[in-house]
What we know:
The protein has helices at 44-47, 50-64, 97-104, 110-129, 157-165, 182-185, 192-202; strands at 6-7, 11-19, 23-30, 35-42, 74-79, 85-90, 95-96, 142-144, 150-152. Strands 1-2-3-4-6-5 form a 6-stranded antiparallel sheet. A 3-stranded antiparallel sheet has the order 7-8-9. The protein is of the alpha+beta class. Helix 2 runs antiparallel to helix 5 and helix 4 runs antiparallel to helix 7. Strand 8 and strand 9 form a beta hairpin. The radius of gyration is 17 Å and the shape is globular. It folds into 2 domains: 6-90, Phosphorylase Kinase, domain 1, CATH 3.30.200; 95-202, Orthogonal Bundle (Transferase(Phosphotransferase), domain 1). The chain is built from 7 helices and 9 strands.
Amino acid sequence: xxxxxxxxxxxxxxxxxxxxxxxxxxxxxxxxxxxxxxxxxxxxxxxxxxxxxxxxxxxxxxxxxxxxxxxxxxxxxxxxxxxxxxxxxxxxxxxxxxxxxxxxxxxxxxxxxxxxxxxxxxxxxxxxxxxxxxxxxxxxxxxxxxxxxxxxxxxxxxxxxxxxxxxxxxxxxxxxxxxxxxxxxxxxxxxxxxxxxxxxxxx
Length: 203
């Protein structure tokens, strides 16, 4: 990718701030609204699957309807050319919970851990009431800002990926193995109870 490319003449990518098996995440500038955003660009290996792209857009649109202080806001989902598909989210300064635990060299004190999990439950519970299951609650998807605000990100993305994979394999895995529920391990679709189980594992 070219240095500081601009997606759809609107989002100028500033620097890479994260990466996973599904996407690369960039800090970016929304040139139209003059604000910082996070742009998640899907990896080329996924954009050749039209079924995944359809489900990815559907899940992103569902997540965009969530408005809660403990959920990372989805601003936009789009495409720039045939192989560049992206989702634009609220930019959250700080680090994810996994990085914070590593930096500490171990888990948080019980009171602090409970404070974090309570905020996670508020966001995930709100999504459940709106009919959306996260499917992949894990420390990497829990963001902590410098002022200790807690925000959960990536709602429904694991569901989109797993649903697309189900056309290719008989047993589908929804989420991350260290944190998913028994029914997810068995290849069954996740439910709100699955998210609750994953939150318990994080704690």
